[in-house]
Amino acid sequence: MSGTALITGITGQDGAYLAQLLLEQGYQVHGMMRRSSTETLGRLAGFQDDITIHQGDLLDQLSLVRLLEEVKPTELYNLAAQSFVPTSWSQPILTGETTGLGVTRVLEAIRQVDPSIRMYQASSSEMFGKVQQTPQTETTPFYPRSPYGVAKVYGYWITVNYRESYDLFASNGILFNHESPLRGLEFVTRKITDGVARIKLGVQDKLLLGNLEAKRDWGFAGDFVRAMWLMLQTDEPGDYVVATGEQHSVREFCEIAFGTVDLNLEDYVGIDPRFYRPAEVETLLGDPSKARHELGWEPQVTFEQLVTMMVEEDIKRVEREIKLGS
Ligand code: NAP
Ligand code: G4F
Predict the structure, then answer these.
(1) 221 C-alpha to center of ligand 1: Å?
(2) Which is the closest atom of ligand 2 to the Cα of 212?
(3) Is the pLDDT of residue 326 over 70?
(4) How far apart are CA 148 and CA 82, in angstroms?
């Protein structure tokens, strides 16, 4: 018998992939979204009617308590966050309130309403920041490099603390970067694939980026949400690194993306210092051995397949936009 799942951050990239996976597993899926004056459910197109959407906000404790009382979830996936690293320097307090303290609000709501709810916390490889060892594992010390990373470290430890203090089933997924055609346009991978599509179709001339030498361990979001679900099906809660174990630079991502449409990045990519960060995470590489052995998790989509999939989907979307505009 599958249960009832509540996803905070249902309107985001991971919310959409996770909701689809849980529906396939037979769950009743509920999603929390914050009030907005514009439509934010676009990523749920095609299966939105199968999900029950509720309003709520990580900044509002009462809304979380009410939601848990109403939905009575067996599993809660806390994906909501201010998740864009550069914004965490321009809005550090909002980021701390949402991405950090928001986790305590969710844990407190669980404690108050039903301590048997299993909780997944969306922790991040950004916590490793200025990396203290390579590859990074569950025991690598954290050294965050942005207000976002600092807030995620708080969210990680408050999850561990509530597990140890109150015996909650609360697990952290330390997820490395994961991307898809549903990725927000401000993140570097999607900015590149959207730029490549626009340049190929003649509606953009240049693509301006920041640090091309930064290295990330990039995977496919559809693979990574499977690890989130597996973490809540174990006998005991725990913390897991989820990564591909393979690293590429932003430059390499660009080379493959432009290569997919027979263009050279040198002809189109420019550097704009506005996209450099006050403190950079230069390199991230995860060791997912624990997730492989204890969860049986393996990524299915390769780096090249991911880049190609994103470029192809952006080309289709930009073509549709051009048609609609003409
Ligand atoms: P995303 O696309 O930016 O989605 C974030 C979600 O949080 C959106 O649904 C957003 O709602 C919601 N949200 C923001 N502030 C909120 C608030 N105050 N109350 C309620 N909801 C709020 O992020 P993602 O890529 O899906 O990532 C999901 C989670 O995993 C995040 O916690 C992120 O930090 C973490 N993570 C992501 C990665 C990655 O590579 N993608 C890696 C490690 C960890 P709106 O639509 O209204 O903005
Ligand atoms: O795509 P990004 O903005 O992702 P970042 O900062 O690694 O954070 C993402 O992954 C984290 C997991 O490690 C998540 F926790 C977080 O929520 C988010 O999903 O930037 C990746 C790299 C950076 O080193 C950045 O300096 O790309 C470099 N970069 C170079 N030019 C750029 C650009 N990043 C962006 N966003 N835009 C550029 O023009």
Answers:
(1) 13
(2) 30
(3) no
(4) 8
Query: Which whole-number Å values give the CA distances from 68 to 41, 63, 151, in the listed order?
Result: 21, 9, 24
Cα–Cα distance for residue pair 200/186, rounded to 1 Å: 19
Of 6, 7, 10, 14, the residue with max ligand 1 atoms within 8 A of its CB, to mutate for a pocket test, comes to 14
- 294: annotated active-site residue: no
Give which of 36, 38, 7 is closest to 23, Cα–Cα. Answer: 7
Confidence of residue 2 (pLDDT cuts 50, 70, 90): confident
| CA distances from residue 219 to 167, 193, 326 in whole angstroms, order as listed | 32, 15, 36
Q: What is the pLDDT of residues 271-288, one digit of tens each?
A: 999 999 999 999 999 999
Is 148 an annotated catalytic residue? yes
Backbone dihedral region of 159: left (phi > 0), alpha (psi from -120 to 50 degrees) or beta? alpha
Residue 102 three-state SS: helix
* Residue 135 preceded by cis peptide, ω within 30: yes
267 Cα–ligand 1 center, Å: 34
Q: What distance, in Å, lies between the first and last C-alpha atoms of the chain?
A: 51
pLDDT of residue 15: 98
Enumerate residues 6+ apart whose C-beta is below 8 A from 311. Answer: 193, 196, 197, 257, 260, 261
Burial tier of 51 (Cβ tally within 10 Å: 0-12, 13-18, 19+): buried
Domains delineated in the chain: 4-178+218-242 (3.40.50.720), 184-216+248-279+302-325 (3.90.25.10)
Q: Say how many Å lie between the CA of residue 188 and the centre of ligand 2.
A: 6
Strands (E), 93-222: 118-124, 170-175, 178-179, 207-209, 215-216, 219-220
Cβ–Cβ < 8 Å for 283, 233: no
Q: Reply yes or no on whether 213 is catalytic.
A: no
Q: Which ligand is nearest to the CA of 217?
A: 2
User: Nearest bound ligand to CA 180?
Assistant: 1
